[in-house]
Amino acid sequence: MGKYTFSFILFNMFCVLFSSTVYARDIRLALLVANQDGWKGDPRLKFALTGDLLPMRKALKRAGFSIFATLKNQSPSTLRRTIQSLKKRLKRHPKVTTFFFYYSGHADKKQLHMGPRGKSPFRHKELVHFLNKLPVKRR
Questions:
Q1: What is the chain's pLDDT, residue by residue, as a tens digit (139 residues)?
Q2: CA angle (100, 106, 107) in 5-degree steps
Q3: pTM of the shown model
Q4: What value, to the nearest 5°, has the Cα angle with vertex 121 and ends 119 and 123?
Q5: Can you tell me the distance from the alpha carbon of 120 to that of 111, in angstroms, rounded to the nearest whole number?
Q6: Best CA proximity match to 31, nearest among 116, 90, 111
Q7: All residues at 6 or more sequence positions from 130 whose CB lies less than 8 Å from its CB, including other chains
Q8: Separation between Cα atoms, residue 90 and residue 66, nearest integer Å
């Protein structure tokens, strides 16, 4: 068998195997959060934005993610408002298949340390509840 015949056979096998299979488009959405300042006593995180958040954003975009929001040094209330906006968006456009949440900053066993400690810190339970309720295949 000549090299052109083998290439022709290989090409036809490739066409048969992959042209008859239809893949649904994976619609990917991300919410990225970073906070350099934690609560009193937490050291300022010098690279939370430039070394963590921004490179992650770039990598996710290359991987086909749409970035819903990038929160830099924002409060827990801003994160909550963003999550509410995201929920509304997912009700209008429920075809998102993969959701990615990224956080770079201080935290403890119960909550994220997003800037000066306020009356209502963002608790891990709140995040887990939000993620579990998302109408997506992967999170």
A1: 454 444 444 444 444 444 434 346 889 999 999 999 999 999 999 999 999 999 999 999 999 999 999 999 999 999 999 999 999 999 988 899 999 999 999 999 999 999 889 889 999 999 999 999 999 999 9
A2: 80
A3: 0.81
A4: 140
A5: 10
A6: 90
A7: 83
A8: 13
- CA distances in angstroms from 65 to 13, 61, 97, listed in the order given: 32, 5, 11
User: Would you say 62 and 54 are in contact if contact means Cβ atoms under 8 Å apart?
Assistant: no
Could you list the beta-strand ranges (E) of 18-125.
28-34, 65-72, 98-104, 106-107, 111-113, 122-123
CA–CA gap between residue 7 and residue 82 (Å, rounded)? 53
Determine the 3-state secondary structure of 126 from DSSP.
helix
| 66 backbone dihedrals φ, ψ, rounded to 5° | -90, 135
Copy the structure tokens of residue 78. 């801003």
